[in-house]
Write a structure and sequence with these properties.
Elements lengths: L8 H7 L26 H8 L14 H14 L3 E5 L2 H10 L7 E5 L4 H10 L6 E5 L4 H7 L4 E7 L11 H10 L4 E4 L4 H4 L9 E5 L13 E5 L11 H4 L21 H14 L5 H12 L1 H21 L3 E5 L9 H7 L8 E6 L2 H11 L4 E2 L9 E3 L11 H6 L7 E4 L5 H13 L3
Parallel strand pairs: 2-3, 2-4, 4-5, 5-6, 10-11
Antiparallel strand pairs: 1-7, 6-7, 8-9, 9-12, 11-12
This protein binds pyridoxal-5'-phosphate.
Length: about 425
């Protein structure tokens, strides 16, 4: 990714990936709303399909608007390439099946977004894949679960919803020791707070739907390849055996100048091309707009969230509270070690005196906060995960993924913090 190493985060977030549009001189990134692209002649068409020449073929595979988003995300994460998907969920699933075959295993931290847990625990077995879960706070528990079929370690930067932060470097050391890639879901941090590739991750995934989009307006996901993992290890057969669906190409060996980005090249040419989880160009455009103000919004999300955490921590109706940006929080040391200025992100979770029933009543009394199943919007949001986002998990699974039944999740928006606090105060004041 050619990029001026002196440029700061916000400059890259505003400029990277846009090279100028030669025919119209459009300053903004145009939305290329097209399914296909003209071939100049038959020779051009066959060169594109045989990868002798790079260029656009069909929007399921690539799109010039999406290309700007992908290049910008790769630049912000300091990776060698990126690939966008229709959702964060699809980005995670495509990442897994890009390297695992039937019989292989995923080793994941257990403190996961409920949808990812279900994907690993319930959907992957349909394809002969198995997931094992370790305690994010105990890298040795990961090591104990590794076996000859483990092919990937997966963690979230800030577990959803209990906000636990792993020691990335210790987990990366385990991945290194057993030569498996470390995949980090950095949705809750965004590259503004944390760049996993600089701390031992090999691949980063994001739900773009959250803080990167920032306005709750579109679904999307992205995978960024650090270019660090050596795919020539024969246990990764999909990278080493000739691919019969792609002219016998061996992805770990035959890519020439694209070799370092083997993971992302295969991700595009196999899962994306053949399973079709592509992002719409309109959504790519929305995420490009989101990236341009990401730094400003993350600062505000984090400073507002810290005020909310301090307010709720002192409130007599609060039973317990977690926010990694509070120096008293058990994840603070990790936030301080890894995240920009020890910022704790935009989510605060807490339990109210009165338990789950009171949690639901509290949410219904909120007025400024919206009761929705989302995080990362400019607007403040609230939800009771045990009865909603994580309700597909059994109560045993909820408790093993560390989800208390009374937990209220607040995604703190960028409104004036006094208005946010006033709404919380009136909703708490109505408590029985
Ligand atoms: N990863 C995390 C940490 C999430 O919180 C979510 C959704 O909440 C996802 C992935 C899935 O993203 P999407 O909703 O874009 O599919």
């Amino acid at each position: 990714m050619p990029q001026d190493p002196k440029q700061g985060f916000s400059t890259i977030a505003v400029h990277a990936g846009q090279t100028g549009e030669s025919s119209t001189l459009s300053r903004g990134v145009p939305v290329y709303r097209t399914a296909s692209y003209l071939f100049r002649d038959s020779q051009h068409a066959s060169s594109l399909f045989s990868l002798k020449e790079s260029g656009n073929i069909y929007t399921r595979l690539m799109n010039p608007t999406t290309d700007v988003l992908e290049k910008r995300m790769a630049a912000l994460e300091e990776g060698v390439g990126a690939l966008a998907f229709a959702s964060g969920t699809n980005a995670i699933f495509s990442t897994i099946i890009n390297m695992l075959e039937s019989g292989d295993e995923v080793l994941s931290a257990g403190n996961l977004y409920g949808g990812t847990f279900t994907m690993f625990n319930n959907i992957l077995p349909q394809f002969g894949l198995k997931a094992r879960f370790f305690d994010y706070d105990d890298p040795e528990s990961a090591e104990k679960l590794i076996n000859a079929r483990t092919r990937v370690i997966h963690i979230e930067t800030v577990g959803n919803p209990m906000l636990g932060i792993p020691d990335f470097e210790k987990i990366a050391a385990v991945a290194n020791k057993f030569h498996v890639p470390l995949v980090v879901d950095s949705t809750f941090t965004t590259p503004y707070l944390f760049k996993p590739l600089l701390h031992g991750a090999d691949i980063v995934v994001h739900s773009l739907t959250k803080w990167i989009g920032g306005h709750g307006a579109a679904l999307g996901g992205v995978v960024v390849d650090g270019g660090t993992f050596d795919w020539t290890d024969p246990k990764f057969r999909l990278f080493n055996e000739p691919d019969s669906s792609y002219n016998g190409l061996r992805f770990a060996h035959d890519l020439g100048e694209l070799q370092q980005a083997a993971f992302i090249v295969r991700l595009r040419l196999a899962p994306l091309r053949n399973l079709g989880g592509c992002i719409s160009p309109d959504n790519s455009w929305l995420f490009i707009q989101g990236l341009e103000t990401l730094a400003l919004r993350m600062e505000r999300h984090c400073s507002n969230a810290l005020c909310v955490a301090e307010f709720l921590k002192k409130h007599p109706r609060t039973e317990w509270l977690r926010y990694p940006g509070l120096s008293s929080d058990s994840s603070y040391l990790m936030a301080k070690k890894f995240f920009r200025n020890a910022m704790g992100g935009g989510v605060v979770v807490f339990g109210l005196k009165g338990g789950p029933a009171e949690a639901e009543r509290f949410i219904s009394r909120l007025q400024l906060f919206s009761h929705v199943a989302n995080v990362g919007d400019a607007k403040s949001l609230a939800i009771h995960p045990a009865s909603t986002t994580h309700s597909q998990l059994s109560s045993e699974e909820q408790s093993s993924s560390g989800l208390p039944p009374d937990l209220v999740r607040l995604s703190i928006g960028i409104e004036d913090v006094d208005d946010i606090l006033r709404d919380l105060e009136q909703a708490l004041a109505g408590a029985d």
